[in-house]
Amino acid sequence: MKVLIALLLLVAFSYSVSAQTPVTQNGKLKVENGVLVNEHGSAPRLRGISLSWSLWQGRKYYNPGVVSWLTDDFKASIIRASMGVQPDSGYLQQPEQQKELIVKVVDQAIRSGIYVLIDWHDHHSNQHVSQSKEFFGQMAKKYAGVPNVIYEVWNEPEKTDWKTIKDYALQIIPEIRKYDKDNIIVVGSPHWDQDVDIAAADQIKDYNNIAYSFHFYASDPYHQEALRAKADKAIALKLPLIITEWGVGEANGDGKFNLQKTQTWLKWMEDNKLSWTNWNVTDKHETTALLQHNAPVYGGWTEANLTPAGIFIRNVLREVNK
């Protein structure tokens, strides 16, 4: 009888461990001593997928089925909801429709127990301050204190200096903090989220739990040693980084898929214990697209539905997040 009880307890314990979600394992995220950590003080090592712009081809994949499939089959521990702000059919033109898409994705991520980035996917956010404040105020009020939720307030500032980016962030952060006092807020950095060394020299000091986005495209000839050196400098200056977007191809989303360069970047991310989301869930004919044309809208993808990038990233996630 004692042996039977011991076996039953072992099975129950094994089930409870395997049934844990990324959020139950890591809890509420925070920034501590210049590093993104979980509630236990360790790097959470979140790896997952970015949905594409919530416009055009990518829009149809903003549904609970896709989020569930990325969680259960790809083993993603974080996803990114990239809300298109402009040019057409984005938040500036269709705010209610865009918010509905984001809420569907965020709510399913919460049910699935994974983390989710609410991304204001706009290269010119400083031109849309009032709209951004309204949006993030609504999101923060709705999701205040929910540990799954991370706010990304500016995707890839283009030819914008750090002063402008920082000034914008200091207008949006207070709107979020009115309602959500502690959840992570991710701030952009100059030159498509690449010049993190510049941000590191003049960090935002007046608010807690502020992280900074770093982006790269692994096969791009301009995104190699020199770009890693910028990030290494930022890390040395205790800038808390999260890689909210990276792709296997080149900066335009297309081009070559260089496996060796991609593996080098993956090793660098693992060595630095950085969390990341890979770009992107779409069936557009591009190198970084994870899906073949007309892949099922609600998930359930077979290998035949995945591009070479999709097959590769799925395999990576299933290995590192097992």
From TrEMBL:
Keyword tags: Glycosidase, Hydrolase, Signal
A Pfam family annotated for this UniProt entry: Cellulase
Name of this protein: Endoglucanase
Coiled coil: none
GO molecular function annotations of the record: hydrolase activity, hydrolyzing O-glycosyl compounds
The UniProt record lists the keyword Membrane: no
PANTHER family (UniProt xref): ENDO-BETA-1,4-GLUCANASE A (PTHR34142), GLYCOSIDE HYDROLASE FAMILY 5 DOMAIN-CONTAINING PROTEIN (PTHR34142:SF1)
One GO biological process term: polysaccharide catabolic process
InterPro entries documented for this protein: GH (IPR017853), Glyco_hydro_5 (IPR001547)
Top-level division of the source organism's lineage: Bacteria
